[in-house]
């Protein structure tokens, strides 16, 4: 691609409760990737092949993307799909929806945000019946991230929700990437978590913590946490939950004692 491509330039605008991205591609190097330029041996060694939808927009990159998926699948890798919707890059909403869903059935793991859920289903809801419109029998796991509300998960034999870790948000850029990257790492470490609800929830808690820490700092890459930082946050917040539970128990006991005292006084 040397000598015939440019770098993609992106701009992000961050305001309170608002985030917008702008891109300049005329075209950029990523759009010009061909299947002949794929590092086939690297793809074959991968435990997970994770991809988005932006590379589906134009040729020759689209064909390279599809070929890379085929190679990874044939080599036994998990296919992980995060659409990472960027409407401004697509010719139209209709084309975006069609092409994003064109490879839906091939993924083992899919992660969507609540915004992407509405975009793909046309329904402004995160209820189970809406989410299940995106479920496919070939999937092993479907995730819906809900920002500071945590995420919902759907596996073949069980489903549930895992709350987030409450933090002071500064910049949510990269939080979703941190979440899915951390979760995939845990799944690779223990693939049985896809069939074990307790293990999966523990993996999602770890991923939630990664996403939460990322949102406390500016920038998508500099904000990514280390494993030590993640475990420290989890331990600290779990300790706070324990303290809160103890305080609630003490309050309940105090209320019970007051009620008993009132009854005794009334009887006297």
Automatic annotation (TrEMBL):
One GO CC term, this protein: cytosol
Domain Carbohydrate kinase PfkB residue range list:
19-226
Keywords annotated in UniProt: ATP-binding, Carbohydrate metabolism, Kinase, Nucleotide-binding, Transferase
Cite the Pfam families for this sequence. Answer: PfkB
GO BP, one annotated term: fructose metabolic process
Annotated family: Belongs to the carbohydrate kinase PfkB family.
Name-wise, this protein is: Carbohydrate kinase PfkB domain-containing protein
